[in-house]
């Protein structure tokens, strides 16, 4: 079964670079990374380079939270590919990564800059979370979704992440050309051939990441 990793909590007094160390220690067979954003409320602020490793890394990242995020915990959640929250969740205070927040949800970035707190329905309406669960349900939904993501082709997921996050700031025509280049690259992989065979044979695919 494909591995689902969890981002470990930094130890008390963790030095700068704790996130890079945690990412370096991820299992090679990890297909999805779960981030408990609530548990990172007291975490030291990661560097921009560390956050970009989450955004542009090969492994899809799912973050969930039930409480109010601010500071480093908010920035780590913004670095995730998918965010899930409970009904009592919120984000408050300016992000340490305003450019990322503005890229994801410009209107939400403006409200936070004015000192507003965004409640869970606001986050869902702005597209900052993909799912809004009853209070206490975010972790289970994140785990369920991680199992689905981990069952998909890892190369396809990695290239999809790259197409989205590197293409988003680009002009549309350039982003579409970049996406096409990545799609052509995907056609050369063994996983692509396995996906076609599995479809024709009406069985689940066995992706190997090759």
UniProtKB/TrEMBL annotation:
Which domain of life does this protein belong to?
Bacteria
Checking Gene3D superfamilies in the record gives:
2-enoyl-CoA Hydratase, Chain A, domain 1, Lyase 2-enoyl-coa Hydratase, Chain A, domain 2
The record's comment on protein family reads:
Belongs to the enoyl-CoA hydratase/isomerase family.
Q: Which GO terms describe its molecular function?
A: hydro-lyase activity
This protein is called what? Methylglutaconyl-CoA hydratase
An individual GO BP term: fatty acid beta-oxidation
The answer to whether keyword Nucleotide-binding applies is no
Which key words are in the record? Lyase
InterPro entries, alphabetized: ClpP/crotonase-like_dom_sf, Enoyl-CoA_hydra/iso, Enoyl-CoA_hydra_C
């Amino acid at each position: 079964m494909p591995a689902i990793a969890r981002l470990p909590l930094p130890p008390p007094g963790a030095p700068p670079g704790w996130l890079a160390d945690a990412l370096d220690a991820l299992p090679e067979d990890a297909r999805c990374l779960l981030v408990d954003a609530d548990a990172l409320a007291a975490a030291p602020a990661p560097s921009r380079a560390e956050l970009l490793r989450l955004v542009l890394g090969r492994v899809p990242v799912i973050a969930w939270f039930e409480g109010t995020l601010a500071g480093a915990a908010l920035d780590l959640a913004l670095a995730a590919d998918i965010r899930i929250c409970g009904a009592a969740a919120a984000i408050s205070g300016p992000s340490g990564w305003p450019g990322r927040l503005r890229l994801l949800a410009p209107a939400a970035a403006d409200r936070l800059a004015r000192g507003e707190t965004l409640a869970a329905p606001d986050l869902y309406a702005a597209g900052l979370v993909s799912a809004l669960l009853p209070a206490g349900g975010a972790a289970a939904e994140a785990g369920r979704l991680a199992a689905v993501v981990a069952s998909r082709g890892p190369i396809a997921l990695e290239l999809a992440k790259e197409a989205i996050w590197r293409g988003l700031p680009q002009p549309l025509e350039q982003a579409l050309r970049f996406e096409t280049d990545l799609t052509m690259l995907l056609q050369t992989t063994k996983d692509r051939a396995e996906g076609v065979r599995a479809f024709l044979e009406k069985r689940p695919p066995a992706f190997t990441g090759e």
